[in-house]
Design a protein that fits this description.
By secondary structure, the protein is of the alpha+beta class. 46% of the residues lie in helices and 20% in strands. It has a four-stranded antiparallel beta sheet with strand order 1-7-2-6, with helices on both faces. It has a three-stranded antiparallel beta sheet with strand order 3-5-4, with helices on one face. Helix 2 (47-57) packs antiparallel against helix 3 (85-116), helix 3 crosses helix 5 and helix 7 runs antiparallel to helix 8 (251-263).
Length: 337
Amino acid sequence: MVLEESLLFYREKDADTFIKFLREKNYRAQKSVESNIHEETVMHGTLANLILVIENAMIWRIPEHPELPVREEPPAPMPGEISSPSDKRANFAVSNARMLSNLQFCRDYLTSIMERFNPGDVVYTPDHLDKIKESLKAGAEEMSDDELDRMLTQSIRIYDCVSILEDNAVVESRSEGMVLLKKVDPDDLTVERRAWNPDEIDGETLKKFDITLAHNIYYDTATRVTIDPGIHFNCVLKDVETVLEELEVDDDSAEKLLDNLYIKAPALDRVLNLIETSGKISLPDLVREMESATLDEAGAKIRIVLNSSPEFVSSMVNDLRKLGIVEGNDRKIRVVR
Protein backbone atom coordinates (compact mmCIF):
# COMPACT_ATOMS: atom_id res chain seq x y z
CA MET A 1 0.00 0.00 0.00
CA VAL A 2 1.96 2.99 -1.29
CA LEU A 3 -0.51 5.51 0.16
CA GLU A 4 -0.46 4.01 3.63
CA GLU A 5 1.70 6.03 6.04
CA SER A 6 3.06 5.51 9.53
CA LEU A 7 4.57 7.36 12.46
CA LEU A 8 6.70 6.16 15.37
CA PHE A 9 5.93 7.55 18.83
CA TYR A 10 8.09 7.09 21.92
CA ARG A 11 5.10 7.39 24.26
CA GLU A 12 1.84 5.51 23.77
CA LYS A 13 -0.22 8.45 25.06
CA ASP A 14 1.21 10.63 22.27
CA ALA A 15 0.24 7.97 19.74
CA ASP A 16 -3.30 7.98 21.19
CA THR A 17 -3.43 11.78 20.92
CA PHE A 18 -2.46 11.63 17.26
CA ILE A 19 -4.96 8.85 16.53
CA LYS A 20 -7.68 10.98 18.14
CA PHE A 21 -6.67 13.88 15.86
CA LEU A 22 -6.87 11.61 12.81
CA ARG A 23 -10.28 10.23 13.75
CA GLU A 24 -11.64 13.72 14.23
CA LYS A 25 -10.62 14.29 10.60
CA ASN A 26 -12.29 10.98 9.62
CA TYR A 27 -8.97 9.24 8.92
CA ARG A 28 -8.58 5.69 10.16
CA ALA A 29 -5.50 4.55 12.05
CA GLN A 30 -4.29 1.70 14.19
CA LYS A 31 -1.38 1.28 16.56
CA SER A 32 1.09 -1.48 17.32
CA VAL A 33 4.01 -1.89 19.68
CA GLU A 34 7.50 -2.53 18.34
CA SER A 35 10.99 -2.66 19.75
CA ASN A 36 13.01 0.52 20.02
CA ILE A 37 16.69 -0.27 20.45
CA HIS A 38 19.57 2.14 20.24
CA GLU A 39 23.18 2.01 21.30
CA GLU A 40 26.05 4.34 22.02
CA THR A 41 29.63 4.10 23.16
CA VAL A 42 30.91 6.58 25.71
CA MET A 43 34.43 7.35 26.93
CA HIS A 44 35.14 7.80 30.64
CA GLY A 45 38.31 9.49 31.82
CA THR A 46 39.81 12.61 33.27
CA LEU A 47 39.43 15.87 31.40
CA ALA A 48 43.17 16.01 30.69
CA ASN A 49 43.35 12.43 29.44
CA LEU A 50 40.30 12.78 27.22
CA ILE A 51 41.90 15.79 25.58
CA LEU A 52 45.12 13.80 25.06
CA VAL A 53 43.38 10.74 23.62
CA ILE A 54 41.37 12.84 21.19
CA GLU A 55 44.48 14.71 20.09
CA ASN A 56 46.18 11.36 19.60
CA ALA A 57 43.29 10.05 17.48
CA MET A 58 42.88 13.11 15.26
CA ILE A 59 43.99 11.44 12.05
CA TRP A 60 42.94 14.44 9.97
CA ARG A 61 46.31 16.00 10.82
CA ILE A 62 48.65 15.56 7.87
CA PRO A 63 52.16 16.64 8.93
CA GLU A 64 53.68 16.06 5.51
CA HIS A 65 51.24 18.56 3.95
CA PRO A 66 50.83 21.30 6.59
CA GLU A 67 49.59 23.77 4.01
CA LEU A 68 46.43 21.78 3.37
CA PRO A 69 43.39 23.18 5.25
CA VAL A 70 41.26 21.01 7.50
CA ARG A 71 38.01 20.16 5.74
CA GLU A 72 35.25 21.49 7.96
CA GLU A 73 32.34 19.56 6.47
CA PRO A 74 33.14 16.45 4.43
CA PRO A 75 30.68 15.93 1.57
CA ALA A 76 27.91 13.45 2.22
CA PRO A 77 27.65 10.40 -0.07
CA MET A 78 25.24 10.73 -2.98
CA PRO A 79 22.04 8.62 -2.87
CA GLY A 80 22.91 5.00 -3.50
CA GLU A 81 26.56 5.45 -2.57
CA ILE A 82 28.22 3.82 0.41
CA SER A 83 30.44 5.92 2.65
CA SER A 84 34.05 5.07 1.99
CA PRO A 85 36.52 4.58 4.86
CA SER A 86 38.01 7.98 4.03
CA ASP A 87 34.55 9.59 4.33
CA LYS A 88 34.05 7.98 7.72
CA ARG A 89 37.50 9.09 8.88
CA ALA A 90 36.77 12.63 7.71
CA ASN A 91 33.49 12.67 9.67
CA PHE A 92 35.32 11.22 12.66
CA ALA A 93 37.94 13.96 12.41
CA VAL A 94 35.35 16.75 12.26
CA SER A 95 33.48 15.31 15.28
CA ASN A 96 36.71 14.96 17.24
CA ALA A 97 37.81 18.50 16.38
CA ARG A 98 34.51 19.80 17.73
CA MET A 99 34.75 17.66 20.86
CA LEU A 100 38.35 18.75 21.46
CA SER A 101 37.33 22.41 21.19
CA ASN A 102 34.53 21.89 23.73
CA LEU A 103 36.79 20.07 26.19
CA GLN A 104 39.48 22.74 25.93
CA PHE A 105 36.84 25.38 26.62
CA CYS A 106 35.70 23.41 29.69
CA ARG A 107 39.26 23.18 31.00
CA ASP A 108 39.84 26.93 30.57
CA TYR A 109 36.46 27.86 32.03
CA LEU A 110 36.79 25.54 35.04
CA THR A 111 40.33 26.79 35.68
CA SER A 112 38.88 30.29 35.82
CA ILE A 113 36.25 29.14 38.34
CA MET A 114 38.94 27.64 40.59
CA GLU A 115 41.02 30.82 40.40
CA ARG A 116 38.11 33.18 41.15
CA PHE A 117 36.23 31.31 43.88
CA ASN A 118 37.00 29.65 47.21
CA PRO A 119 35.13 26.83 49.00
CA GLY A 120 31.84 28.19 50.35
CA ASP A 121 31.52 30.86 47.65
CA VAL A 122 28.39 31.03 45.53
CA VAL A 123 29.48 30.35 41.96
CA TYR A 124 26.01 30.94 40.49
CA THR A 125 23.03 32.64 42.06
CA PRO A 126 19.62 31.06 41.39
CA ASP A 127 18.70 33.66 38.78
CA HIS A 128 22.12 33.84 37.10
CA LEU A 129 21.34 31.41 34.27
CA ASP A 130 17.84 32.87 33.93
CA LYS A 131 19.38 36.28 33.26
CA ILE A 132 21.58 34.73 30.57
CA LYS A 133 18.49 33.27 28.92
CA GLU A 134 16.68 36.61 29.10
CA SER A 135 19.61 38.45 27.55
CA LEU A 136 19.76 35.87 24.76
CA LYS A 137 16.06 36.28 24.07
CA ALA A 138 16.20 40.07 24.16
CA GLY A 139 19.18 40.30 21.84
CA ALA A 140 18.22 37.56 19.42
CA GLU A 141 16.21 39.79 17.09
CA GLU A 142 19.16 42.13 16.56
CA MET A 143 21.74 39.39 16.04
CA SER A 144 22.85 37.73 12.86
CA ASP A 145 22.47 33.94 12.63
CA ASP A 146 26.21 33.50 13.15
CA GLU A 147 26.25 35.71 16.24
CA LEU A 148 23.25 33.91 17.72
CA ASP A 149 24.80 30.53 16.98
CA ARG A 150 28.02 31.51 18.74
CA MET A 151 26.15 32.79 21.78
CA LEU A 152 24.02 29.64 22.04
CA THR A 153 27.12 27.48 21.70
CA GLN A 154 28.74 29.44 24.54
CA SER A 155 25.71 28.92 26.78
CA ILE A 156 25.61 25.18 26.06
CA ARG A 157 29.30 24.91 26.89
CA ILE A 158 28.79 26.72 30.20
CA TYR A 159 25.93 24.36 31.12
CA ASP A 160 28.28 21.49 30.27
CA CYS A 161 30.89 22.88 32.68
CA VAL A 162 28.30 23.17 35.44
CA SER A 163 27.29 19.54 34.87
CA ILE A 164 30.92 18.42 35.15
CA LEU A 165 31.23 20.22 38.50
CA GLU A 166 27.99 18.65 39.76
CA ASP A 167 28.91 15.14 38.55
CA ASN A 168 32.23 15.37 40.39
CA ALA A 169 30.59 16.70 43.59
CA VAL A 170 32.63 19.91 43.38
CA VAL A 171 29.57 22.15 43.73
CA GLU A 172 26.28 21.80 45.58
CA SER A 173 22.95 23.43 44.84
CA ARG A 174 21.63 25.30 47.86
CA SER A 175 18.96 27.93 48.48
CA GLU A 176 21.47 30.74 48.00
CA GLY A 177 22.72 29.24 44.75
CA MET A 178 25.38 26.86 43.50
CA VAL A 179 28.14 26.70 46.12
CA LEU A 180 31.74 25.60 45.55
CA LEU A 181 32.58 22.73 47.93
CA LYS A 182 36.28 22.29 47.18
CA LYS A 183 39.05 23.39 44.90
CA VAL A 184 40.30 20.85 42.39
CA ASP A 185 42.56 20.68 39.37
CA PRO A 186 40.17 20.71 36.38
CA ASP A 187 42.47 18.26 34.59
CA ASP A 188 41.60 15.65 37.25
CA LEU A 189 37.82 15.95 36.88
CA THR A 190 36.08 12.87 35.48
CA VAL A 191 34.31 13.47 32.20
CA GLU A 192 32.11 11.34 29.96
CA ARG A 193 31.88 11.86 26.22
CA ARG A 194 30.34 9.96 23.35
CA ALA A 195 32.88 8.07 21.24
CA TRP A 196 31.95 8.93 17.66
CA ASN A 197 33.87 6.03 16.15
CA PRO A 198 35.28 3.67 18.79
CA ASP A 199 37.08 1.59 16.15
CA GLU A 200 39.41 4.51 15.47
CA ILE A 201 40.75 4.36 19.05
CA ASP A 202 42.90 1.28 19.68
CA GLY A 203 43.18 -0.59 22.96
CA GLU A 204 46.77 0.47 23.58
CA THR A 205 45.79 4.14 23.39
CA LEU A 206 42.97 3.56 25.87
CA LYS A 207 45.38 1.88 28.32
CA LYS A 208 48.00 4.58 27.86
CA PHE A 209 45.57 7.35 28.78
CA ASP A 210 43.48 5.33 31.27
CA ILE A 211 40.28 5.77 29.26
CA THR A 212 37.36 3.35 29.64
CA LEU A 213 34.89 2.68 26.85
CA ALA A 214 31.35 1.74 27.85
CA HIS A 215 29.07 0.40 25.14
CA ASN A 216 25.47 1.01 26.22
CA ILE A 217 22.54 -0.77 24.59
CA TYR A 218 19.09 0.60 25.40
CA TYR A 219 16.07 -1.70 24.98
CA ASP A 220 12.66 -0.07 24.94
CA THR A 221 9.36 -0.10 23.10
CA ALA A 222 7.74 2.44 20.82
CA THR A 223 4.27 2.75 19.33
CA ARG A 224 3.82 2.63 15.57
CA VAL A 225 0.71 4.35 14.21
CA THR A 226 -0.30 3.08 10.78
CA ILE A 227 -2.43 5.61 8.92
CA ASP A 228 -5.07 4.77 6.35
CA PRO A 229 -4.37 6.02 2.77
CA GLY A 230 -7.35 8.36 3.18
CA ILE A 231 -5.04 10.87 4.87
CA HIS A 232 -3.90 11.90 1.38
CA PHE A 233 -7.37 13.31 0.68
CA ASN A 234 -8.51 16.61 2.18
CA CYS A 235 -5.49 16.61 4.49
CA VAL A 236 -4.25 20.01 5.65
CA LEU A 237 -0.50 19.62 5.98
CA LYS A 238 -0.21 22.51 8.43
CA ASP A 239 -2.71 20.84 10.78
CA VAL A 240 -0.58 17.69 10.87
CA GLU A 241 2.58 19.72 11.50
CA THR A 242 0.90 21.65 14.33
CA VAL A 243 -0.29 18.59 16.23
CA LEU A 244 3.06 16.81 15.85
CA GLU A 245 4.92 19.78 17.36
CA GLU A 246 3.32 19.01 20.72
CA LEU A 247 4.11 15.27 20.70
CA GLU A 248 7.20 13.13 21.24
CA VAL A 249 7.52 11.56 17.82
CA ASP A 250 10.49 10.06 16.04
CA ASP A 251 11.95 12.91 13.98
CA ASP A 252 12.78 10.75 10.96
CA SER A 253 9.31 9.21 10.75
CA ALA A 254 7.64 12.62 11.18
CA GLU A 255 9.77 14.13 8.44
CA LYS A 256 9.02 11.18 6.17
CA LEU A 257 5.26 11.49 6.75
CA LEU A 258 5.21 15.20 5.98
CA ASP A 259 7.39 14.67 2.91
CA ASN A 260 5.15 11.88 1.67
CA LEU A 261 1.98 13.91 2.12
CA TYR A 262 3.53 16.67 0.04
CA ILE A 263 5.43 14.71 -2.60
CA LYS A 264 2.89 11.98 -3.34
CA ALA A 265 0.18 14.55 -4.06
CA PRO A 266 1.28 15.32 -7.67
CA ALA A 267 1.35 11.62 -8.57
CA LEU A 268 -2.04 11.03 -6.94
CA ASP A 269 -3.57 14.03 -8.70
CA ARG A 270 -2.12 12.92 -12.03
CA VAL A 271 -3.46 9.37 -11.73
CA LEU A 272 -6.94 10.53 -10.80
CA ASN A 273 -6.92 13.13 -13.58
CA LEU A 274 -5.95 10.52 -16.17
CA ILE A 275 -8.71 8.16 -15.02
CA GLU A 276 -11.26 10.98 -14.85
CA THR A 277 -10.51 12.46 -18.29
CA SER A 278 -10.38 9.10 -20.05
CA GLY A 279 -13.65 7.88 -18.57
CA LYS A 280 -12.09 4.47 -18.19
CA ILE A 281 -8.52 3.35 -18.69
CA SER A 282 -6.61 0.09 -18.54
CA LEU A 283 -3.81 -0.40 -16.03
CA PRO A 284 -1.15 -0.86 -18.79
CA ASP A 285 -2.22 2.45 -20.38
CA LEU A 286 -2.17 4.18 -17.01
CA VAL A 287 1.28 2.78 -16.30
CA ARG A 288 2.50 4.04 -19.68
CA GLU A 289 1.13 7.53 -19.02
CA MET A 290 2.72 7.64 -15.57
CA GLU A 291 6.07 6.28 -16.66
CA SER A 292 7.27 9.82 -17.33
CA ALA A 293 4.54 12.39 -16.74
CA THR A 294 5.48 16.06 -17.03
CA LEU A 295 3.89 18.84 -15.04
CA ASP A 296 4.62 22.48 -15.93
CA GLU A 297 4.30 25.10 -13.21
CA ALA A 298 2.06 27.90 -14.52
CA GLY A 299 3.92 31.17 -15.02
CA ALA A 300 7.29 29.69 -14.14
CA LYS A 301 10.03 27.88 -15.99
CA ILE A 302 9.75 24.87 -13.73
CA ARG A 303 9.07 21.42 -15.07
CA ILE A 304 8.23 18.55 -12.74
CA VAL A 305 8.69 15.07 -14.18
CA LEU A 306 6.93 12.21 -12.40
CA ASN A 307 8.74 8.92 -12.99
CA SER A 308 6.54 6.14 -11.64
CA SER A 309 7.31 2.44 -11.74
CA PRO A 310 4.58 -0.01 -12.88
CA GLU A 311 4.51 -1.46 -9.37
CA PHE A 312 3.94 1.96 -7.80
CA VAL A 313 1.06 2.78 -10.15
CA SER A 314 -0.55 -0.63 -9.66
CA SER A 315 -0.31 -0.34 -5.87
CA MET A 316 -1.76 3.19 -5.93
CA VAL A 317 -4.73 2.00 -7.99
CA ASN A 318 -5.34 -0.81 -5.50
CA ASP A 319 -5.27 1.72 -2.64
CA LEU A 320 -7.79 3.90 -4.48
CA ARG A 321 -10.04 0.87 -5.01
CA LYS A 322 -9.98 0.09 -1.27
CA LEU A 323 -10.91 3.68 -0.53
CA GLY A 324 -13.84 3.42 -2.92
CA ILE A 325 -12.50 6.21 -5.14
CA VAL A 326 -12.00 4.10 -8.29
CA GLU A 327 -13.53 0.84 -9.39
CA GLY A 328 -13.32 -1.73 -12.16
CA ASN A 329 -10.78 -4.36 -13.13
CA ASP A 330 -7.38 -3.67 -14.65
CA ARG A 331 -8.91 -3.43 -18.12
CA LYS A 332 -11.48 -0.77 -17.18
CA ILE A 333 -10.49 1.47 -14.28
CA ARG A 334 -12.91 4.33 -13.70
CA VAL A 335 -13.75 6.91 -11.05
CA VAL A 336 -16.65 6.04 -8.77
CA ARG A 337 -19.57 8.40 -9.37
